[in-house]
Each structure stands twice: as structure tokens, then as C-alpha cells.
TrEMBL record:
Molecular-function annotations in GO: beta-catenin binding; cadherin binding; calcium ion binding
GO biological process: adherens junction organization; calcium-dependent cell-cell adhesion via plasma membrane cell adhesion molecules; cell migration; cell morphogenesis; cell-cell adhesion mediated by cadherin; cell-cell junction assembly; homophilic cell adhesion via plasma membrane adhesion molecules
Region listing for Disordered, in residue ranges: 1-69
InterPro entries (UniProt xref): Cadherin (IPR039808), Cadherin-like_dom (IPR002126), Cadherin-like_sf (IPR015919), Cadherin_CS (IPR020894)
Composition bias type Low complexity, residue spans: 45-54
Keywords carried by this UniProt record: Calcium, Membrane, Repeat
Major location (coarse): membrane
Subcellular location: Membrane
Residues covered by the Cadherin domain: 67-147, 148-267
Compositionally biased region (Basic residues): 1-11
Protein name, UniProt field: Cadherin domain-containing protein
Length: 292
């Protein structure tokens, strides 16, 4: 069967057909979706398979198409085409009500491009040019921060000064960084606060005491947390560990002393050679002056 190219050309005029009123109740949609089993909850961030056994949620009204040409006599037929039309989004062809049939995952797909058309049911003619519109999926905070590179290990010299940088840890958050605080992370220490500190914004781990002695304890296990929502109550969090080893500074001191000695020896030698050369030069010059 040949396809009708009826409304294709008109549909390209994005947002110009003003008579089709589109009521997008994204907030209502978001609230309702918040109750539905979204992929990746407050736990591990992996998709769950537990939703298999749960029944499909009721379709949720997200908006309505309407044309002023509609005389409420039942002759107007509303049609929806485009991404997700007929599956994710269904339309009541008489009322123009658009429902979403399942919870949407912004991290999977954040917008849908659709084309709305109103036709006369009897003549099948368009009542006005088709209109393209976009349904944007608003973000909810359903992804916890994840330390992709942890667990970490690092080392620092024993007796290092307070504030000595040890390592920088980084967590990522799949939520929308441009909307709200769902991906705004704050780093804190869960374990190891008595010896270390972490910069809340950068995740740089530093020493917090000056007298960590390797001979007393040569290794520390630090537990770090990244929390979204700017670290506030209700945010999601992820943790990682950093194994910090203290390196022996007495061994370093030995190496340093040997290096200094050998450098000094070379310097003295060079200086001696230099003086000798000068002396010989001057002597030869002198000689040249006498005998030249
Ligand atoms: Ca999501
Ligand atoms: Ca999200
Ligand atoms: Ca998040």
C-alpha cells in the first residue's frame, strides 16, 4: 500500500501551526513517573529485572491536542506520528488526549519528536497544517554517584606536612548536570577523618596530621563518599576506598645524603680543575708576556 504523504511537508514547520494547542504536563508526568519503577534506583545504578513481574503502569495523561476547527461534533480526528507514537505515546483520536504508556528514562532518551495532525473524519482532509512538537523528559534523581576507577591505592611519605596532596578521586553521576542538583556531587570522608581530609568539590585527598610514622602504622584504609544533591539530605551516594601507604623517609634521606656527597665531590673536583686551568693559562700568558 502506498503511504499518504499527506502531512509530511507541513510537519517540517516546527512550531508554526499555532492552532494546535499542546498542553504538556511534564511536571505531573514526572511526579507520577517518580512512583513507577524507574531504571537504576537508589541502589547500585544497574538496571533491575525485578520490574518484569510488576504489571504495566496505567497510562498517564501528559497533554492534549486541540484545534479551534474542532466543533465538538465528533468529526475531528487527532493523529499522532513520530518517535514513540502509538507505543510510548498514545492519543485519543476524538479528544486529542495524549497519554504516556510507560515510565520514561531520561538517561536512556531525553526527548521525543512528534507530529500532530487534525483531520476531518469524513473527508480525511487536514483541518490545518500538521505541527511538530517535542516532549522533553525531565530529570529525576535516580542515579547515584559512581567511582568508576576505585578502589584506589596511593602513597605519601611518612611525616609529610599537613595538607600534602595524596590522590584525587572522581565520581560520576548519570543524571542531568544542567537541571537541579541531581548530579551535583560533594565528597566526604566516612572513615579516616583523624588522619586525612578531602576537598568536598575536587575530591583531592590530603594529609590532616604531620606526624604519621611509618614504623607505627604503615598503611591506612580510607573510606570516601560522593553524594549528589550537593551533599544534602535525601541525596544518593556512592563510596570507594583509598589504601594509603606511608613511604619510608629514612631510606629517602640516605639516598639524598649520598647524592649530595657525590655532587659535592664532583663540584670540588671541577673547581680544582678550573683553578688549575686558570693557573696554567695565566702562567702561559705571563710567559708569553715575558718572552713574546
Ligand atoms: Ca533514569
Ligand atoms: Ca535521572
Ligand atoms: Ca544523581
Amino acid at each position: 500500500m502506498p503511504k499518504k504523504p499527506l502531512h509530511r511537508s507541513a510537519a517540517r514547520k516546527t512550531g508554526t501551526a499555532s492552532c494546535l494547542r499542546k498542553q504538556r504536563r511534564t511536571r505531573e508526568e514526572r511526579n507520577r513517573r517518580g512512583r513507577a519503577p524507574a531504571a537504576g534506583g537508589a541502589g547500585s545504578g544497574t538496571s533491575s529485572s525485578s520490574s518484569k513481574s510488576t504489571p504495566d503502569p496505567e497510562p498517564v495523561l501528559i497533554g492534549r491536542l486541540h484545534t479551534d476547527m474542532d466543533r465538538n461534533d465528533g468529526r475531528t480526528k487527532y493523529v499522532l506520528r513520530g518517535e514513540g507514537a502509538g507505543s510510548v505515546f498514545v492519543i485519543d483520536e476524538k479528544t486529542g488526549n495524549i497519554h504516556v504508556t510507560k515510565p520514561l528514562d531520561r538517561e536512556e532518551k531525553d526527548e521525543y519528536r512528534l507530529i500532530a495532525t487534525a483531520t476531518d473524519r469524513l473527508t480525511d482532509r487536514a483541518l490545518e497544517p500538521s505541527s511538530q512538537f517535542i516532549i522533553r523528559v525531565q530529570d529525576i534523581n535516580d542515579n547515584p554517584p559512581v567511582f568508576d576507577e576505585g578502589p584506589y591505592s596511593a602513597s605519601v611519605p611518612e611525616m609529610a606536612n599537613i595538607g600534602t596532596s595524596i590522590i584525587q578521586v572522581t565520581a560520576t553521576d548519570a543524571d542531568d548536570p544542567t537541571y537541579g542538583n541531581s548530579a551535583k556531587l560533594v565528597y566526604t570522608l566516612v572513615q579516616g577523618q583523624q588522619y586525612f581530609s578531602v576537598d568536598p568539590q575536587t575530591g583531592i585527598l590530603r594529609t590532616a596530621v604531620p606526624d604519621m610514622d611509618r614504623e607505627t602504622q604503615d598503611q591506612y584504609l580510607v573510606l570516601l563518599q560522593a553524594k549528589d544533591m550537593g551533599g544534602h539530605l535525601g541525596g544518593l551516594s556512592g563510596t570507594t576506598t583509598v589504601t594509603v601507604k606511608l613511604t619510608d623517609i629514612s631510606a629517602e634521606r640516605d639516598t639524598c645524603t649520598r647524592d649530595t656527597l657525590s655532587v659535592t665531590a664532583v663540584f670540588v673536583l671541577a673547581d680544582t680543575v678550573c683553578r688549575t686551568l686558570h693557573f696554567r693559562q695565566r702562567k702561559s700568558l705571563f710567559a708569553a708576556g715575558i718572552y713574546g
